[in-house]
Amino acid sequence: MPFRDVVTGRGHRTLAALLARSVARDTLPPSLIFSGQAGPDMREMAIATAQSINCLTPTGKGDERDACGVCAACTRIARGVHPDVIVVAPDDKGRVNIEQVRDVIDRSGFRPFEGRRRVVIIDEADTMLPPAQSALLKILEEPPPSTVFVLVTSRPDMLLQTVQSRCPKLRFQSARREEIDTDAREIAQEVLAQAAATDDPGRRMDAARDLLAKTGAGGRGDREQLASHLHAMAALLRDVEVLATGADVAALANADVRPDLDRLTKSFGGDRGMRAFTAVDKALTALEENANTKIVADWLVLQL
Predict the structure, then answer these.
(1) CA quadruple 88, 89, 92, 98: dihedral positive or negative?
(2) Which of 108, 158, 173, 259 sits CB 3.0–4.6 Å from 126 for a disulfide?
(3) Are 189 and 257 contacting, i.e. CB atoms less than 8 angstroms apart?
(4) End-to-end CA gap in the chain
(5) How far apart are CA 68 and CA 89, in angstroms?
(6) 152-176 residue pLDDT tens
(7) Dihedral sign from CA coordinates of 89, 92, 96, 100
(8) For residue range 25-47, what is the model confidence (pLDDT) as tens digits?
(9) Distance from C-alpha of 250 to C-alpha of 239, rounded to nearest angstrom
(10) Full-prediction pTM beyond 0.70?
(11) What is the DSSP code (8-state) at residue 120?
């Protein structure tokens, strides 16, 4: 399933563009974590990445690079029979066991049989017990140049911190307009606009106070409120990427504020927008790990 089939109507266009660009530039990290509640979408995106890497007749360039979906490599990957694309799933006990991990480590030591790079997809990676994760960590620390590991999980907090630290994380979440809180979106828009207007740290901190609107002493409700603001910001940044890349505007989650999106695109289109999106993702992860809400907000506005 090529990228174009995964993103249709699902709000993952920004992630697909990021992966496509990395494949095109040969800058894809040797290991990645796909996290979120979009289980089937994450698995399909991992397969799409494997196809994009190994397609015999890829289409497009840069953000638009994609697998053809019909060549021998693409069809074999889709059928699960390509020798260089390994999908590891939990065993009959519901776990990815250490023997499975050792097997893919051994196979990763060889050059790809026929593909450009070997891709190892570990589905439900959170089901690995610590010994299996520790075994995997050894190869993540010294990854073979011809292999890419993709860990798919809805519970990234179940992965060892040492494993998480070796793998850039891509967060999958819905960007449908009806799921975006209107007040949170207004706050997110204002914070992005303020960040675009100044590099002065003091004025950036004013934006952090806006980001903390409707929060108080740092309890669970405050954490959820800040997370709501950050999810709204992530959705806006996705839309900015859609406009910046000239993609189909039908994918916009915030089409009703198109003039505001156009203004934000002037500041956040391209690499800056991708850095901002990554910073928002890291801020959300910090909240999940019970970081102080003010510290998270202060850090984030300095990264935008």
Answers:
(1) positive
(2) 158
(3) yes
(4) 33
(5) 26
(6) 998 888 899 899 988 988 888 654 4
(7) negative
(8) 888 899 999 988 767 889 999 99
(9) 10
(10) no
(11) E
CA distance 13 to 47: 15
163: number of Cβ within 10 Å: 22
Instruction: Compute the CA torsion angle 99, 164, 241, 71 (nearest 10 deg).
Output: -20
User: Residue written as tokens 């397609």?
Assistant: 55
Closest-CA residue to 91 (of 121, 65, 55, 128): 128
Task: Identify the residue whose tokens are 């697909």.
Answer: 16
Q: Residue 236 in contact with residue 188, Cβ under 8 Å? A: yes
**172, β-bridge pairs:** 36
Residues whose CB is less than 8 angstroms from the CB of residue 251 and which lie 6 or more positions away in sequence, other chains included: 7, 9, 11, 13, 242
What's the Rg (C-alpha) of the chain? 20
CA distance linking residue 106 with residue 126, whole number of Å: 21
DSSP letters of 162-191?
HHHHTS-EEEE----GGGS-HHHHHHHHHH
Q: Residue written as tokens 């039908």?
A: 250
DSSP letter for 63, please: G
Q: How many angstroms separate the CA atoms of 261 and 237, rounded?
A: 9
- The residues that bridge with 32 in the sheet, in sequence order, are 150
What angle, 0 to 180 degrees and rounded to 10, lies between the N-to-C axes of helices 182-197 and 220-244? 60
Token pair for residue 165? 């630290």
